[in-house]
Batch of 2 targets.
Target 1
Amino acid sequence: MDYILETLSGLLRDSGFYSITYKNVIMIVVACGLLYLAIRKDYEPLLLIPIAFGMLLVNLFPGIMAKPIYDANGELVSAGGLLHYFYLGDEFGIWPSLIFLGVGAMTDFGPLIANPSSFLLGAAAQFGIFAAYFGAILLGFEDGAAAAISIIGGADGPTSIFLASKLSPGLMGPIAVAAYSYMSLVPIIQPPIMKLLTTKEERKIKMEQLRPVSKLEKILFPIVVTIIVVLILPTMAPLVGMLMLGNLFRECGVVRQLTDVASNALMYIVVILLGTSVGATTSAEAFLNISTLKIVVLGLIAFAFGTASGVIFGKIMCKVTGGKINPLIGSAGVSAVPMAARVSQKVGAEADPTNFLLMHAMGPNVAGVIGTAVVAGTFLAIFGA
């Protein structure tokens, strides 16, 4: 009988029930809520499902993120958890760079080339980053941490992870989860701000068809941008370089196999690795604290400011051009490609079902990707990383 009781006691100690806390339960509920949004509401399931499941796993079994343990002689005692090795790709900036490779291979920069003024809208939408930076400073974060937090305002998950890994590794988990969560919630957060700042007549504005862009222009664009950006901000070579390499694969027309791999198989594999490892950084002990709450709030404020500043600058351009620019496309200046551009299209179509803004919004959208990377590189240069 004692043997049976001892065995049962050992099984209980080894079970998750023995070590689970109320904080773990809270995080499990949050993870299930995110899974509901992804599956039932279809809020960017490619991002939310891996993130939420990583969150679920680490709060059920924290050891899945454990680091390897060595004894005094350097012999391996414990190999560590699976997701720890996934997370090393975030820590070393590998997964964000490969995500950018896939984004470049999937993205048509033609609308940006055809309408270079889109760069201004993309730049205007970065105001949210600086608003979050100064807000983070006021809330007591140090310069490097404040800079890493502020990139959430660009709604660019890979860049947020990349910058956090350089400037504030300890905050990478909350920053990454906040950034990807807000990217997923673009269809909820942006429309009320866009409608508040524009009139129905402005939302109905139809823009002229974009000029055709030659193949030579599309080939030269990634090469020229890489040269300029990397010469000015060498620290951003991993992100900008991979983004432009992926786009060069797409546009040159002679490496179709590489384009297919970068935009499909490789992209989806990396999303799984990055998403689950980002989610697994949200253990109850690391996530449920005041700093995390501040980061989540700052991220929301930054994203709202970025959306608003893009729309406001769009209104200015609308006035300057005599009504030729629909202000809604300014909201796409945040880096959430192509979700933000789709939201511009959706809100414009609600005002006038015959209005087609998607391609016009893609210009500011891809400009926002480049703009966020440039701002991140500027922060890296300023803080000496």
Target 2
Amino acid sequence: MNWLGSLKKIVGKSVPLALFPLLFLSCSGDIREPVIIWTNRQEFASYAELFNASQDAIKVVVVYKDSPVESLPPARDELPPDVVVGSWLRNDTTIKQFRPLDSLFSNQLINQSIYYPQLLAYGSVQNRQYLLPVSFNLPAIIFATKNSRLVTEDHLLSADQIRDVAGTFNKKNKSNVHTNMGFAPSWSPDFLYTLVQLKGGNFRGDKESLAWSQEKLELAVDYIHYWTETVNDSVQEEQDFAFKYLYTPETRQILSDSCLFAFISSSQLFATPQNLLQEISFRWLHEDNRIPVEDDMVFMGIHKNSRNTAGAESFVTWFMKEESQHQMMERSTIMNLSITSFGIAGGFSAIQNVTERIFPTYYKTLLDNVPAAQYITAPPALLPRWESLKTRVIIPWLSEVALSQDIQSVTPLEQRIADWFRQHH
């Protein structure tokens, strides 16, 4: 049977057909309504196939949505999803699209204790669980294993430690030009953003607006400028060095001996080819033993207008089993899917045992540095279109401020945010 033809009959033409071929009807002719999953995580194509093969009663179909949160609520002529998987789902607007999942706990279908508690709590509103955490990533600082003697800390690095150690790596030639530079904040816009959050800038969604700590933001900007001026001499020195030497991916930059450190997400780090990963060491970026979970943490929820709630609950329950996730990772390895995607849905599993016990068998470099559960810190609640606001406004502003010798010449952040809201609301 042609899977796309069958899918059109069941789902309807109104649903975007950027779909994964996941519909498998049983030979007995059972055409029970399938469970429809909206997601932009391509790994769910494999997970759905695994679920479909595990039993005959329920079938799932994965519908690709470039941004699931922006696809909610469904259009009037669109078949609603049963399950939604994606980032940015935890906000005052979108949370209303989901039904509570507390019955999964009370009926002992899922044990609450399997999760990192701080991540589970993030999906709760007024003591009701609307979203279940799926996966998350953490910020890491990488360096060449051959330079490990310079890094005395075993698991974590703070911004102060990075700055101080990086400074010892700096070298200049007879012309007073840097030939080696340990690290510069201005090299990585994502590092700037993470640093601001760690220092208390605390960008967060507040209903239909954005809030943050102006005082902490200004202190973080001052910290960045102090680092540049006292360790690397000037922004111009940092940028000249980056132009000359840092034109390769971060993992190769640190192996070239030009720089000591690079900032990277765990999702990028553990998708690195094994031959390179053997030459790389890493530490988790922290502040006061707080390792911040990256903003795009992935959650799963059941839509309030689900047409197959029982089937949706069955899939969610299956997905949240340790055994199921072990099978997902094994299948990913066998099919070489782990080359482009890390772990579960592109990150660490929100199920603590999976991350702490199963991940190190697939990612050997984690054996000595599995992130300590008590240090992991969930992000603040964010707006539905946070990804757009962050990439188009927040990060560009931070980059300009970091590179500017005259902050007053940079268009104020408040004005840029106001302009963005006028365009998108």
